[in-house]
Write a structure and sequence with these properties.
This protein is of the alpha+beta class. Helices cover 32% and strands 20% of the residues. It folds into 2 domains: 171 residues; 110 residues, no CATH class. It comes from Actinomadura darangshiensis.
């Protein structure tokens, strides 16, 4: 985890698979992930060291399916047979209350690490364990059966903010080749992953096809309905904004974007969902 701290940078928080396989500890090779399995339980350690969620494209499965329970805690499935040594390693991590690392796939062979995380419950009847992402969730889990609605909502918000949102951001920005879809700005620190259908809407799934990589000014303009995206994927700047007279940012940053065609991901599966674009554009038109 200290190595991951040193490895981290805001512009590039992901780690490559080969880095994790080639990791060395005290001068010897000590992989942080298993080459074949989702759970890494090294020989000589009682508990598991890490868990891994493989990257999958939109459409292959629902985003984060079965990941979030009704109590707001995330789940992780067993590796096959419940008595497999890796699953026993997860249970030992729970018993010993030791932290793990969760490597979540954001692109083929690239992972966003979350750490420390804890196994807060073992659920063999569902072949899974529950995961706590911070100490607050670990504390809540001690009384999981009697959580109030407020505590459940809090736990769900923590799970989304600490895992779903960072994963969504990385997947969207990487799909758009680290470039704003509107103005092509390529400064990663100034880019956001904007939802087309907001995540507060039940249809606002955390899928790349429900996202746009936008610089911060165009993200804010999109959220505030200053600009919209037509079903033909061209930008529509609100008419009253086009008539305003102000400085160069208004002129070059917003007014000149009217009619621009979005720059899209290379992979068709990553491109904006047509129904989501149409739904969001109708909202823009209603407000404008």
């Amino acid at each position: 985890m200290a190595w991951l701290d040193r490895r981290y940078s805001p512009d590039n928080p992901v780690v490559h698979r080969q880095e994790l396989l080639d990791f060395k500890f005290e001068g010897r090779r000590f992989p942080l992930i298993d080459n074949q399995l989702g759970i890494r339980k090294p020989a000589g350690l009682t508990a598991a060291l890490s868990i891994l969620t493989t990257y999958t494209s939109d459409g292959q499965r629902a985003p984060y399916e079965d990941a979030l329970g009704s109590d707001g805690f995330l789940r992780y499935k067993y590796q096959g047979n419940p008595e497999h040594y890796t699953n026993r390693g997860l249970r030992e991590a729970h018993t010993l209350r030791v932290p793990l690392i969760w490597f979540f796939g954001v692109q083929q062979g690239m992972y966003l690490p979350f750490y420390p995380v804890w196994i807060i419950a073992d659920e063999p009847q569902h072949s899974q364990v529950a995961i706590g992402l911070d100490e607050a969730q670990v504390t809540l889990a001690q009384n999981a059966e009697s959580l109030s609605p407020l505590e459940r909502r809090y736990s769900e918000r923590v799970s989304k903010q600490r895992l779903h949102q960072p994963v969504f951001r990385q997947r969207v920005i990487r799909a758009y080749n680290s470039s704003c879809a509107v103005c092509c700005l390529r400064h990663v620190s100034l880019l956001d992953a904007a939802h087309i259908v907001p995540d507060r809407d039940e249809r606002g799934v955390p899928a790349v096809s429900n996202g746009l990589a936008l610089c911060k000014i165009h993200h804010s303009a999109y959220d505030e309905n200053i600009l919209g995206v037509r079903p033909n994927l061209t930008v529509h700047v609100r008419s009253d904004i086009l008539q305003e007279v102000d400085g160069p940012m208004l002129k070059h940053g917003l007014q000149e974007m009217d009619g621009v065609t979005l720059t899209l991901p290379k992979r068709r599966v990553d491109r904006p969902n047509r129904e989501a674009i149409e739904q969001r554009y109708e909202l823009f038109r209603a407000v404008g």
